[in-house]
Specification:
Distance between the termini of chain B: 39 Å
CATH topology of the largest domain in chain B: Pyruvate-ferredoxin Oxidoreductase, domain 3
CATH superfamily of the largest domain in chain B: Pyruvate-ferredoxin oxidoreductase, PFOR, domain III
Shape of chain A: globular
Order of helices and strands of chain A: HEHEHEHHEHEHEHEHEHH
CATH class of chain A: Alpha Beta
Number of strands of chain B: 21
Radius of gyration of chain A: 20 Å
Strand order of the largest sheet of chain B: 9-8-10-11-13-12-19
Radius of gyration of chain B: 26 Å
CATH class of the largest domain in chain B: Alpha Beta
Distance between the termini of chain A: 49 Å
Shape of chain B: globular
Number of domains of chain B: 4
Oligomer: heterodimer
Strand order of the largest sheet of chain A: 2-1-3-4-6-5-8-7
Largest interface: A-B, 60 and 70 residues
CATH superfamily of chain A: Thiamin diphosphate (ThDP)-binding fold, Pyr/PP domains
Number of helices of chain B: 19
Helix content of chain B: 25-40%
Helix content of chain A: 25-40%
Strand content of chain A: 15-25%
Number of domains of chain A: 1
Strand content of chain B: 15-25%
CATH architecture of the largest domain in chain B: 3-Layer(aba) Sandwich
Number of helices of chain A: 11
Structural class of chain A: alpha/beta
Structural class of chain B: alpha/beta
CATH architecture of chain A: 3-Layer(aba) Sandwich
Amino acid sequence: MSSDVRFTDFKSDKQPTWCPGCGDFGTMNGMMKALAETGNDPDNTFVVAGIGCSGKIGTYMHSYALHGVHGRALPVGTGVKMARPDIEVMVAGGDGDGYSIGAGHFVHAVRRNVDMTYVVMDNRIYGLTKGQASPTSRSDFETSTTPEGSKQPPVNPLALALASGASFIAQSFASDALRHQEIVQKAVEHDGFGFVNVFSPCVTFNDVDTYDYFRDNLVDLEEEGHDPTDYEAAKEVILDSDKEYQGVMYQDETSVPYHEQHGVTENMSEIPDGAPDDAMDLVREFY
Amino acid sequence: MAEDLNWAVGGEAGDGIDSTGKIFAQALSRAGRHVFTSKDFASRIRGGYTAYKIRTSVDQVQSVVDRLDILVALTQRTIDENLDELHEDSAIIYDGERSWEAEIPEEMNAVDVPLKSLAEEAGGAIMRNIVALGAACEITGFNVEYLDEALEKRFGGKGSKIVENNKKAARAGQEYVQEHYDLDHLGYNLETTDNDYILLNGNEAIGMGALAAGCRFYAGYPITPATSIMEYLTGRIEDYGGHVVQAEDELSAINMALGGARAGARSMTATSGAGIDLMTETFGLVATSETPLVICDVQRSGPSTGMPTKQEQGDLNMALYAGHGEVPRFVVAPTSITECFWKTVEAFNLAEKYQTPVFLISDLAMSVTEQTFPPEAFDMDEVEIDRGKLVDDDEVEEWLDEEGHFRAHAVTDDGVSPRAIPGMTDGAHMSTGLEHDELGRRTEEEDERVEQVDKRARKVETAKEKEDWDYREFGTEDADNLVISWGSNEGALAEALDYLEEDGIDIRVITVPYIFPRPDLTDEIEAADDVIVVECNATGQFADLIEHDVLTRVKRINKYTGVRFKADELAEQITAKLSEEVPAQ
């Protein structure tokens, strides 16, 4: 790992096809900077992406990467980290990928507490399929598939994480570049599952949850003097649906990641060129 | 054919039937006898008939037959379920003091042993099955001391007192029968030998094969009858620095295994057909991202929930065709328990050499059957590891394009690209389920699309040329009658040959462990007058393939009752089938 890694080293030479002004640009920049700042380089980093506008991130970043099937990015990241505790794993997805088709995996990845970072680009809309309701869309938000609104309360991903036993819960705003980077960086540095829900506005299909909306309504928890190690305080801000918070809501400083709890330390890619030396013992067990 | 003895213990699920049977099987194995076990069970934790059956001989046994000589019956249903197999020399051990009144046909030998009372005297009613084992020893002239080692293995962890009590219980049963019955006229006398055998089932062989092959990461979701692979690996894979994750579902399990493989670990998942349905979502991704992955399907009766604890070979078409689009893959189907081991090793090599998913197809019958083998059948020195084009740091440099990007999907003559794994300097690259260029980046360029599809197909062609896709053969090579099969039917077929030989019928048996690519059987089929394909499904999925390959019609024997073929039954069916007309072209 070289010490002179710049965040642009994590950039591929493919130009993003995201709409001009998409929140995902800012989200990705913050991720790259956080990775560089924490001493990682592209050759020791694995980025997993799901499907959706967010899923394209693996193409625009430079690292070892897998762009997988819809909703299953977290399991892939889990496998990578188990096999290679020495590798930095970052999983990226959108609100559809993480909280709809992949919701089941989200709950279990959170409770497993695998040492990886999960960045969700939450734009509260399905952008790639051109504007349908997402699990975080407001209940009265009108879309092509919900002309009168979904009439369902949006999923609160932070509360879902809390209920699943999360050790790190944060939220950021793609446009607040510095704070977003800081927050993602804390998630990377966290020993365990670092979850960041990022407000990443869709300028094409969501005219409600816009940059202006977030700028006007964002409350920064750092300015509020919030103590992320205080579980009760975390619960309060996470369940407060009247405000849009930015910052680290909760961090369990005693968190021990899954691989450490299970004594997984080895680089599993290294194996002998025949059966293990003591392999006949496996046979003898069956006497 | 050596003299065999067929023994069973049956009762309600939850009665400890399995462990009782296993103890007896182990004792027989310790005495240098060969053993082949089978299980009848229902998908319930408690309640419902279940039985553990053992066929034993001094010669190798590899099938069940339609005959039961000694039955330990804990319920009347156990007797009723097995009436067809019992005969006038059968002995039925039961507890006359229990509340049920045993109805045993007069011509059979009822052996009433107060199992519960004797067990209580030895230290606890829970040992009543062990009392029955002691009784069985006496009837079969089998030294009760052979049980001791099996009891130590089973109960050693619970302390010496428990072991001693069990030994006492076994002797109580043995002595009771000795005092109260004279069954010498039945003529059961279990010979022993000095041979040392090991006793294991197909799933254990797959698990052991995985460890031998260097599998370090396993992710799975519990499902009958595949779970015991996961249970085998858990607690053992850690000794080699590996890990097993119990995933939240099969969608997750295969994606975790995919992640492990992309990170460079030999990775595997196993499930049954219902789980394959979910995993199918990810097959295409495994193939297009060119990830080496072993996916094991231990088949059970379907469709849907079907008969989850029953035998079937109904997933062959799924293994060949599952997934949208055209997914290159290998399909390997071991035909015996030893082959479960060797084909698992081979599956890992094929996966890495060709960076392609490998389906390892087993079935329920093989997964629950415990069979004896000389330990040399699993000679670990014979295990070879071939990691294909996994590059090292220096070789990475040879595969960079002008701008320094690693060409993870480089178009090569043999279709196989270099493989770099995380941590290798300059090896960083993207992989995706989208069609991609050599660098792994999305493309919809017509030329690049065709190049990548052809390249992936070429890997399979290369493998067809380079690897050995041979069949296995038994019986008389130049016989006019050819029987073809796959999967766990091999054992029953091999033994059916003996029955057929007694009737003067010569058969050539071919079993095929490679479903795709598979051996071309044209010459073999054309040389035979009669061709019969035997399989445990209703539609004849393998027979369809053979007909398609050879452009001919074959006769079919299909069984889909949920119960595996038995050697004697199969011999009868083959005889009957030989006299039938060949189906119209």
